Amino acid sequence: MSLNMELVSRFLTRPDKSFFLFGPRGTGKSTWTQEIFKEALRIDLLSPDAFRRYAARPERLRDLVQGNPRKRAIIVDEVQKIPALLPVIHALIEEKRGLTFILTGSSSRKLKRTGVDLLAGRAVVRTMHPFMAAEIVSRFDLKRALLHGLLPLVWKDKDPDDVLRAYAALYVREEVQMEGLVRNVGNFSRFLEIISFSHAGLLSLNNVARECEVERKTVANYVDILEDLLLAFRLPVFTKRAKRAVSVHPKFYLFDAGVFRTLRPHGPLDRPEEIDGPALEGLVAQHLKAWNAYGGEQNQLAFWRTRSGVEVDFVVYGPHDFWAVEVKNGDRVRDEDLRGLRTFREDYPEAKALFLYRGQERLKRRDILCMPCEEFLKGLLPGKSLDA
């Protein structure tokens, strides 16, 4: 079943001023901007002709605006391709012409490296994520989401496996190689395979460097590249009022379950649970990240792990939410699965505890709410509490 992206109402809300819209390729940024700003002028810097014209003379943008005085919204797709456009945009905003600029991008790295200040606060920053289950409602299928992820680009295609295989190659070729982000593309491709084993686990740069046979600082740079390209993120350990010694390593997640499965090598010696468990945890992670972003970034997302190995997968901490969340790929609730949540609540009795699993029943065990993972994902709405 293919999914028409234009029929999906996204949770991203339109800001009332100019804004940057960052997100990985294929998350639906262009589809959303076309729907929300139907009459806008659009400059697509992925077009070789447009790139050549505006790279040679960024001031051409002013000419375009002056030549179309009735157009109040201007979309610049993949703005990071030509950072020199931003001073022109900044000046146009400062002139109080009543213009709204929508600046999309799949990477913030080039803007950071060139010292661009993102228009000195004249534009806010928003992010676009893969689909949330509640955005596609009855069409959401947990098994399919775990196999192919939730990238709109993939869900709308009849051959999702082929699209996913091409996706990583697209990024390596167009974002990494063409932008000159790494010196050795072969080493980076090897790193992508190795780092997939860290998905939903503790990130040890030393261990990854050893497997890749490169220096630690090279791996640190590669991880930074993945984060700047919005393809991965790290979760810090929750340390507020810590009563126990906790982990020093963050947890690492690729941004989409389907991309994780595509990058993760597997064969006859790999047990399904070695991939299915991290895929499920990663799916919950990407939902929590999107839920927090679309809800105004009100919460801190973290995890909790003691030096002795007792762990809670996610801690959500904010003005209105304090939750400890554990995710298991099994279809039963076992006492040992709740150990981390119980230990966390001994240290933080103010927290609510939530256990997500693959079963069908909603249960309460010792003040721990046990909920089917699919039910949780479908009910997760930005601006609402986790158990709303």
Return the average pLDDT rounded to an integer.
91
SS class? alpha/beta
Radius of gyration: 22 Å
Poorly predicted residue ranges: none
Estimate the global geometry from the Cα principal axes: globular
- Please count the helical segments: 16
Distance between the first and last residues' Cα: 30 Å
| Domains, number | 2
Physical arrangement of strands within the biggest beta sheet: 9-10-11-12-14-13
Percentage of helical residues? 25-40%
Number of strands: 14
| Element string (H = helix, E = strand) | EHEHHEHEHEHHHHHEHHEEHHEEEHEEEH
Provide structural commentary.
The protein is an alpha/beta fold and 388 residues long. The chain folds into two domains: 5-127, P-loop containing nucleotide triphosphate hydrolases (Rossmann fold, 3-Layer(aba) Sandwich), CATH 3.40.50.300; 133-379, no CATH class. 39% of the residues lie in helices and 17% in strands. The chain has helices at 29-36, 48-56, 60-67, 85-94, 109-113, 133-136, 142-148, 152-155, 160-177, 185-196, 205-212, 216-228, 257-263, 272-294, 339-347, 373-379; strands at residues 19-22, 41-44, 73-77, 100-105, 124-127, 201-202, 232-235, 251-254, 300-305, 311-317, 322-327, 352-357, 363-365, 368-372. A six-stranded mixed beta sheet has the order 9-10-11-12-14-13, sandwiched between helices. A five-stranded parallel beta sheet has the order 2-3-4-1-5. Strands 6-8-7 form a three-stranded antiparallel beta sheet. A hairpin with a 5-residue loop joins strand 9 (300-305) and strand 10 (311-317). Helix 13 (257-263) runs antiparallel to helix 14 (272-294). The longest helix has 23 residues, at 272-294. The two termini are 30 Å apart.
